[in-house]
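Fold this sequence, please.
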Amino acid sequence: MNEAVAFLGLGVMGFPMAGHLARAGYSVSVYNRTASKAERWVAEHGGHAARSAADAARDARFVFACVGNDADVRAVTLGERGAFSTMLPGSIFVDHTTTSADLARGLASAARERGIAFLDAPVSGGQSGAVRGTLTVMAGGDAQAFASARPVLAAYAQFVRHLGPPGHGQLAKMVNQICIAGLVEALAEGLDFAKAVGLDAPAVVEVVSKGAAGSWQMENRAATMLEGRFDFGFAVDWMRKDLGFALEEARRAGASLPVTALVDQLYAEVQAMGGGRWDTSSLIARLARSIARPGS
């Protein structure tokens, strides 16, 4: 295959995602703000470590990014030595970062002015999904650009869907986070209740997970929540960022998100406990009846 692609951002998601592209036969140039991480990726997967986003994108037909927030995406696209300055006409930028829909719309417009395409394509599935190559991608942007990118996305995604014009991928990710927030708080309360009334909580989880109460969160997080282990997975700080986007969009649209607003404030309490980098399942640490707290 040997088609040139670039990947910007080698965090817990980007590092394995870029690795899947290399294993699929693409010629991958990577850029990371901390250069040593890019060098480590090249030592493991081959390819090329670029000194800037612009250098990584120079010869790539597809440029992928998975960085931290809106400011980081602006920096690797429109900033000094950003990718948009060197991308080839007709090339496609695919942003896997969870950002505001406004940023996605603005970057899609800026890309069009430069003769390139921009897809907002946030992912779901977490670090484990990135490692296994089983992510879900929800995309907004030009349909033709999406059709071109879809076979490449298959290197690390098991389900990919185009959902509409620029910004719609980010709006769909907000739906994802809204649903997760309520589920995690409900699971935290259920586990705490089980312990409070003297039930064998792991046994109860085994039973109820087989019925209508079952969920990905229950299957993958109940045991670690009961153990008070939160040093992995998607951080509370990032979840609050995402919920902030959802609450702002809801205000604009006149949509009501009472549970989301409540859970956002509960996550603020977790941050105040020093848990900003804990996994989002750490909502149970607020209740902490007979649940172990981190470090206890």
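Residues 96 and 122 are 4 Å apart (CA to CA). The radius of gyration is 20 Å.
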